[in-house]
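Researcher: Good morning. I'm working through a list of sequences from a screen, and I'd like to move beyond sequence-only analysis. For each chain I'm collecting a predicted structure so we can compare shapes side by side. This is the next one on the list. No need for commentary yet; just the structure.
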Amino acid sequence: HIGAEISVQNRGSVPVLVRTRQGYQNLCRLISLMKLRVPKHAKPGECVVTSEELAAHARGLVCLTGGFDGPIAKAIDPTNRRDAESAEKTQRSVEWLIEVFGKKNVYPELQRHFDRDEEARNHLVIELARRNRLPLLATNGVCHAIPARREVSDVFTCIRNHVRLETAGRLLARNSETYLKSGAVMQKLFADLPEAIANTSELSSRLKFTLEDLGYEFPK
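Model: Good morning. Structure tokens for this chain:
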């Protein structure tokens, strides 16, 4: 399946998956909009589209609610996750995604990497999904193929941020859980939420587009 993360101004990073040929065209246009206005020495978050641009190119795309830099996480008050204002902001973020993509194309995303802050966010995402009658989706923030490759991933993080391993601190992964997990491992990890696993198959069956559908013949 084809997808990307689209950085939206003041909204965070929105993961999208291509559902149709039009969706692929819209994704290409969104990426072009981001890249054409990127500064020469851009930092993460500087290469963005506006909410209006995303809405204009949302047809044919399915969106997930994202992880620590997604629109729900961005709306959470880290000092008080349970206050009324924070709850209202997260609800507005979900309503915005529904307005942009349509209710059938919004999947609240859950990831489990044995991180306390992440699990607290998961509880909030589950509440939002139940309240808005949206399908939960179990995913995994993959950064390396196997646990042992976490060290290599950390090295690349240091290169990207121009720091040394011994001074990188919280830039580095907290553990080795962001590896490519098997279906059996994911089922065990989300044993309390079997619908979140079942919905991955349901969503996969909806993503009809492949690069073969482009009808483009690459140079030999």
